[in-house]
Structures are given as structure tokens and as C-alpha cells.
Amino acid sequence: VVERRVEEEGASLAKEPKSFTDACQEGTVEAVAAWMEDPARPVHPAELEAAARRCGPGQEELWARLVAGAQRRGLYSVALWSLSLLHRSAPAIEEFLLQSHPDFVQSVAVPGTSTVILESSLLHGARKEGPT
Hints:
Blueprint: H1 2-14, H2 20-26, H3 29-37, H4 48-52, H5 60-73, H6 78-82, H7 84-87, H8 90-100, H9 102-107
Helix pairs in contact: 3-5
């Protein structure tokens, strides 16, 4: 019984990711989010691309937790923020456009400001089906 418990403990320790990239590739959704939310664990900005791969359709909660964690750390990733379009997060879409496409933002902004005058029902979750 003691031998088995030691083996089980050893197996659980072996599953602990050694880096954020490991957590993204092999860890559970909770392990990925927990790593990002723990300020003592390092995250390199380039590793956010691996994290973004885990945030496809149906993974809005993970995506939101990763974006919040990245913001707390002062990190930005085009790959992660571009998913704001998929997950329909207007604040994250705005940040994505401001960071990644500043020329576009200036072309649709109120002159002399960064206030975007672009409005779309897609930003608010409404969809219109078929041709207009």
C-alpha cells in the first residue's frame, strides 16, 4: 500500500508542468489558467502563442482567464488577442485593433482622438443571417 502511494505521488509530481509552454501543450485547461494566474510562475510573451492554440471554439473561459492574466503581467500577444473576434469581446477587440492595426484604428477614429466610430452588431453578439 505504501509502495503504491509513493508511485501515485511520483506520477502526480511528474505531471506538474515545468514551464508555461509545457502546461499549454500537455496540461489541463485548469493547469494552463492556473500557471498564468500565478505571478510567481514565469511566462514569456512568445509562449502566449502556444496558449492561444488552446482557446478555440468552446474555450471562451480559458481565453478570458489567459487574457486577464496577460494584462496583469503587462503582456500582449497578437495570437491571443485576435481570438477576441471569435469570442466576441468588444474590449479585447478594441485592444487587438489598437495594438495590432493602429493605422486601421486611425482610419475609423474620430479625428484627433482614438475613439473608434466603427459600430457593428457583431461586436454585441447579434447576427444577421443571409443576404441583406
